[in-house]
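Entry 14. Structure prediction run on the chain below.
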Amino acid sequence: MRLFPDGAIQCLTQRECDFLHAAGIYRKTIASRNPARRFLLAYGARFSAHDGTDDFEFTDPYYALSHCRTLFLSHQKLTDPVAFLERMHYRGVQCGRIASRAILEALVDLLGRHLKIDSSALLDPSCDLEQTWRRQPAIQRRMIIPLLDICRHLYDAFPKSRNPTMIPGLIILHRPEGWSPEKAFPAWIRLLDSLLPNMQFFISLSEKATQDFPKAITRHRLPLPAPVAGEPERKRALSLPKKPVLLIQVDGRLPNLALMKLSRYYKEKGKEVVLAQKGARIKKVDRVFASCIYNFESSMARLQALKKYYGGDLRAGGSGVDLALRLPEEIEEMPADYTLYPELGDRAIGFITRGCPHKCPFCLVPMKEGAVHRVSDLQSLLGKRRKRLILLDDNLMAHAQSEEILEEMASRGIQVNFTQTLDLRHIHKRKALLLRSIDCMNTRFSRPNYYFSLNNNKRLSLIRNKYQMFGFKSRDNVEFVCMYGFDTTLAQDVERFSFLRSLPGAYVFTQQYRPIVPGAPVHDTIPFFDDAPDTLIDELVSIVFTQNMKSMESYYKWLSRKYAVRFGRLHTGLVDTIFRYNNRHMRGEYIATLAGTRKR
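Output returned:
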């Protein structure tokens, strides 16, 4: 890293590193999302603190690595004490956040015990922190400021820790004896040692301060794991059957139905079957099958690696490979092997119908499955003991017998997850009543959930009329899958989200359009922004759903990048919204990545 006189930080280029000392070991500096292995703070002999000018918005992408400025540059300021205490007080005392409360309690206890400073007001809900701080003598404030700065950077760097002061790391202090009265220096050191018990310190001192340094602390040693005597224990290899049939699920989160049928087929032939994920490489297999649902870059890279390893022995299928490929009929008709995915428990998975009568330009179902048609029944899927069903049907509501199927579900009292969503266009009053009488659940079957989709805003009045047939209330969980990045504009997206916010119980799950098969339609073929993008974005971020706003963050990030490319600047309000609640410590890194996308 190069430090500039104004405090800016910049990574050295690879070419610049070529001229560094040959005996050194150099690594690229990164704004790590987990700085636990490289956390470093460093302080010089002189410092001053911000007073109303501090930045708590994480605009610096190297914030977790750059807090060594006062070691070299004394004019660089430390944390604004009042602003930081107000944030900790609000989160820890008023909101009950564990990490914030732990920091305040530690400071109150240790300041009183070691420096005889009464700071109990920090835990008073009605405390005026600015007045409390200003009333402290200047010398006491000077002793406290570095402690607050350390706590602030630990809190920022480890936002998920219940007590950041317990984190290990390294702190360099140059001549800290000038920060406190001579007589108080040993007590200040003992306070620092108690506040940060797992932190390693390197301290430079004057000869006098060295004599006054608490001798007991110099004998402290951090516990390190003792080496195991003798040979290291060898990891036992996973025991596999000899020459098994290997089934590889390259992608997808749900259990793979095609692999479950292949497993049943080969087990009935007396073969041993092994299931592996993603890019598994296992020697000495009888046969190897890989199922690839998507044509994403990551999926294709795994598939190419598998082909390179297994060569002609690999048989790959799935929508991401070839829509025309099918399991042989004798395998397709076999029941699924549920022992392949024991995590399913008592949940069944499968199709009652396949296909869809609509020909949406972004969808592969018409090409792959054709018109909607019956392929199974409830009894075949559930068997004798299963009472919960993950239904994979493309458009059950469009089938002529859908009402009878819903009636059977209701009469059996089973729980159903309609994972591919229900088509509101085919809903009428009777179907709505039947669906309300069925236990419609989320995929984990942990709560009631209804799934619909709304990929454009062409039939909003029809959707509202159909939705009202269900009589949903605000307490219901009704998820609408909303695709973006295909053929809608920003204005249409805002209208669509605003419409869904007006429906009681409805919330949004955003899903970016990505071509998942070879030859899929091109996306982003129409102008996305109109003449008033900033006004529309302001309206967008004001649309707040009662749940699943983390899903909306994906759309916000996609939009912010698109905005940066189109207009050559950041939309700061949109960036602020993205990091308002989650991962605030990653804000600077995100801004840095956006800067690289701006139009030159």
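The two ends are 26 Å apart (CA to CA).
Filed with the rest of this week's runs.
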